[in-house]
Design brief:
Layout: E1 2-7, H1 16-30, E2 34-40, E3 54-57, E4 59-62, E5 65-71, H2 75-85, E6 89-92, H3 97-109, E7 113-116, H4 136-146, E8 152-155, H5 158-167, E9 173-175, H6 188-197, E10 206-210, H7 219-230, E11 237-241, H8 247-257, E12 263-267, H9 274-280, E13 283-285, H10 295-302, E14 307-310, H11 313-318, E15 325-328, H12 334-342, H13 351-360, H14 363-383, H15 392-397
Parallel strand pairs: 1-2, 1-6, 2-3, 6-7, 7-8, 8-9, 10-11, 10-13, 11-12, 13-14, 14-15
Antiparallel strand pairs: 4-5
Helix pairs in contact: 1-14, 2-3, 6-9, 7-8, 7-12
Length: 402
Amino acid sequence: MNIGLFTDTYYPQVSGVATSISILRDTLEQMGHQVYIFTSNDPKVSRNVYERNIFRFPSFPFTGFPDRRLAYSGALHAVQIAKELNLDIVHTQTEFSMGLMGKFVAFSLKIPAIHTYHTMYQDYLHYVANGKLIGPRTVKTAVRNYLKNMEGVVAPSQLVYETMVAYGVTAPIRIIPTGVDVHHNVTAAQTQDLRQQLGLTAATPVALSLGRLAFEKNIEDTIDAFQAVLSKNAAAKLVIAGDGPARQSLTDHVDTLGISDSVIFTGMIEHTDVPRYYAMADVFVSSSQSESQGLTYLEALTAHTPIVVMNSPYVKDLITDPSIGVGLDDVDELAVALLPYLNKTAQVGDLAKRDAKINEVSAEHFGTEMLKFYEAVINEYQADDDRNSDSIFGAFSNPFKR
């Protein structure tokens, strides 16, 4: 099968969406399929650099979100490329520029298009005119319009599924959690080396926060909780791995609390180093309440590192045993939940249940379920010839409609 993934966000940009797409691409290729990435160009990628099966289009930085980009041209060129590649299906990963381009490509070639809804935009409205320009109702209308005439929608979690239903999406929706690499080969020596690089000993209790340092991640709540942890365990350290727009605000907050010696900001880390960070930590912590699929939670799980995170329908489905971690309803409970893991007194739980959960979130399972959905969508599309008779002028009357 020839599959076209259309996304505004891809490496070297760092995000859960980019990671999800990379995992899907690698897994489907390992299964013998051809996967092509259609995405925006990036200043960090030279035009002279060859990227296998990746096609980049002219773009500009997104207002209020400068490390994300929007393509502004190339739709006809994308159609030509997709035709030469003989794409069987278009899978859009964004509702913006490259998503609209993907819909145009699918319409032009008369092939089906599906979409993965990655981002709970109501949690990000502050990036646009401080939330004064776009409200939740506008998001609902725009998303519903974008998904009109899609042949299918992938919801990475129950939370996303329920959101799509509440938005009135009529396309078939299938819950397919994003998978992660479960085949880590991090050695004890590697974790010890990393601890030494961070100025930690083998005995230092370590809590890890890893991901993009964005305001909606509520990392300040994690820092506040860690201040309370230190009153019970002064030797503990909080490692905050990653970078982002909230970095300066968070470092200032740490300084204000007077706990700079106990909090380590690593800055951006290489993707290949991520498993080592999870493996060296005693517990992974997140106070974010905007996670639609929680890839960092899954990555910690596959490293056998327990997680302490805020509850959501997704988390409640993920944490089914103490061996996986704890979901909390109130950020004020963070410190109390972290201490047993840092003090090495937490219940181990049923390790067999943890291993079963790891298998459920494997990249292989992810790819298999996605391929089943592709096949079902293609078969349904081919059985319905009426969809191929739409006027092309109808597509332009509403830019959200394929």
